[in-house]
Structure formats: C-alpha cells, structure tokens
Amino acid sequence: MATTATVLRGQHSAEKVLPRAVSQSVPRPTTIARYLLVFTLMAAPTAFGAVQTWAWASLAVIAAVLLVLWAMGCAQNQAVSIRWSALYVPAVLYLLLGAVQFGRHLTLDPFATREALIKLLTSFVILFLVVQLWADASARMWKRLGMAVAIYALSMALFAIVQYFTSYGLIYWNIAAQGGDAFGPYVNHNNYAGLMEMLIPICLCFALYRSLKDSDQMLLIFGVCGAIASLLLSGSRGGMIAVAAEIAILGVIIWRRNKDRGNFRKWKIIGLVSAAGLAVALFAVTPNSGWQRLASIAGVVQTPDVTMENRLTVSRDALAALHDYRWFGTGLGTFDTVFPQYQTFPTDLAWTHAHNDYVEALTETGIVGGLIILSGLLLFAWLVIRNLRARNNDLQWWIQLGAALGCCGLLIHSFADFNLHIPANMAWFAACAGLAIAPAARSGSKQDVVAPVKSRRQA
Fold first, then answer.
1. 105 Cβ partners below 8 Å, 6+ apart?
2. Over the chain, what is the mean pLDDT?
3. Structural Rg of the chain based on CA atoms
4. Could you give the CA distance from residue 98 to residue 69 in angstroms, rounded to a whole number?
5. Which tens digit of pLDDT belongs to each residue from 47-58?
6. Residue 270 Cα distances to 82, 129, 372, angstroms
7. pTM for the complete prediction?
8. CB count, 10 Å around CB of 349?
C-alpha cells in the first residue's frame, strides 16, 4: 500500500492517526538527536565561532547526521510527523535564490556563493530540526534545555572574563588575534557579544520562571549577571544596545502580564537592586579601554575601532552595486570580492563584510532577496506573537520568550555588525528562531503533517 500524507485539522485528529506509542515514548534516535544538537551548538563557538573551513564544514556534516537521526526516530515510531511552519517558505525561497544565482551564473564569485549556500542550508536544517525535535518535547526536556543553556552561558562568561584579565589579548592564552579585538573564543569581540545576546534572554527567562517556582534558584540569577558582565567587558557597543533593548522589551512584557498581581512589586525591587549591584561591581573593575568604548557610543572619545561613520560610508558604497545588479544582486557571499570596485574612500582596513547584515544581504541578493528577507522577518514576528499569546506562563512559554528576545537582539545588532555571517552565531540564531516558533507539545493543530509508515505485512 502506498504511503500517503494526511494534514491534520482537528485537535484530536492527531491522536487518531498517530500510534499510541508516539505519545508515550520517545525513540532513542530522537533523544540522541536532541542531545547531539545541543552539544553541537555549544561546541561551535569554541572553534573561533566556526569561521574556519573545517569548523563550518563539520557543522554541516553534523546537521546532516542529525537529520538522519530524526528520520530514524520517525521510522521507529512508524510515522513521519512533520511540524509545518510558514517560516519555512521564505527560508526555502532564499535558498532557491542563491541556487539560481549559482546555477544560472548570476554570481560574480561562484565559489563564494557555493560556500554561502552550504552555510545557509546548514542553518535551515538546524531551524527545521529544532522545530521538529522540541515541538513534542516534555516539560522535563524543556527544563534540561534551559538549565543547559544557563550553565553554558555562565561557563562561557567566566572563561571569557578570566581570559580577558590574564591572557593579554590571546585566545586560549596561546593564539594571537589580528587587530587585538578578541574576546572569549572569538577573534572579534562583537561576535562574542552576538552569542551572548542570544544566550542571556533565555537564561534570564528561565531564571525568572524557576525563581517564581522555587526561591533558592539564585545561582541562575548569578549566571545571568555573569553573562551580562562578560558582554559589557567585551566592549561591544552594538551588544550593549541590543541587550538593553532585550531587557527593556522583557520588562514591558512582564509588566503587562503581571501588573495586577501582588508579586509584581517584589520583582520590581529585586530587579532594580540586582541591576544596581551588577553595575557597581562591573564599573569597579572596568579598565580604561572599556570606559573609552562606552564613551565612544555617544562620540565623547574616538577609538581606533570601526566607527559608525565608517559603517555608514561602507553601507552607502555597497548599496551602489544595486545600480548594476538591481534584481538579483551580485551573488551570495560576494561582498568581499565586489566591494573594492565601489569603495570611494582610502583605508588600510580590509572590508570583508559591510558591518551591516541587511545592507550586505541586499547587495548580494538584490531587490528580490530584500523582499524575501522582509517577508521572513514580518512572518517570524507574527508567528512569535501568535505562539506566545496562545500559551500560558509555563516553562516552554518562558524559554520561547527568551529565544524570541535573543533573535530580536541579534537582529538589532545586525544593523552595525555581521554576526549572521559567523557560522556559530547563525546556527544559534536558527536554533533560537526554531525554539520561538515551536508549537506546544501535542497541540494537534493543522500545522502537523503526518505520514503513517506501514510495515511490509500491513502493506
């Protein structure tokens, strides 16, 4: 008998189609895929952000292995259950645009476009797998995920802080970074800040949920403070602005949902005291270089780092390429090759990226790519709002809120940096986006696509 796919439309239809074992037990390949995916996300930043060829290629291979493990789990359950999301549409369209550029020779650098396509495909697979693997995850699995991210963020922050004060600018106390802007395992301190922008909201939301349930979870709060301290010590101005925006949005959301509750006053006092204590402790140990970078946000002092004026000039020159390649751009990954032809200012710096992910994407994919990106961002915002409104204040809601805020922070930072071109950060962004839009467990909504797998005897 041929296998057919059935789209579920009723709340109870999923229970009729799926075997009973699916809702009661999790296949071993699915469990392995979950843990391997989390381990891979945590390991990727330690390899300098996975920017080297062996690192991002390994990330792509592991993503393929994870896809096979997910398929094996579906086969063991005798049902292929695919959680559909409308966000897949713009993601696939963007991949198809890059494939057309490469296949139809519309790119000015085929090798760079091929590399960019592999990285984008890896990120899309991670997005897909996160939605599939966590859509039906139990509350215990969500708790383990939140705790793992909290421990990882604290460990990364402590490592970065200790290295900052003891390594004299070396990565892992041994490797010299060009430019002297290294922080943590990243060559560029702004890329480290990009990672923390995604981890901090998840840790903060998880800590708030656990503190509401259990008053002895102060270790989680300490972890959040350590992560924020490491970001501020990195001196990333975009990171500071992004985290400030994340905390402000989180504060507004909590205020709107708790303004009529008696414990709101208590949380407001605790939050103010914690923020003041963190600020005092941080500013007491901040070296002169950190103060200079803080002051450079308002233009009080000048630093040898790339300034906002430089970024605006590069963006203006890069967008000039749209006059010649209006609809489909110059090709994915071609900024490094094409920009020198449109550069109008003398400099000793090698501009491998535009320091603005939106400008770089627009020059590489043209108006068509820009429309796809815009539609994807609007769709993502709508899916997140709808998903959060449909749920109560359970653990999954808090972690999904943190993941959504992490994406928001990185998107804000992307106006002044190129975090979405760092494979490790892009993988984390895809994972956070998948967590934010993952439907509730056993929702049985019409977004579920199930194809029952028949055995040979049944066929």
1. none
2. 80
3. 23
4. 27
5. 999 999 999 999
6. 43, 37, 43
7. 0.84
8. 9
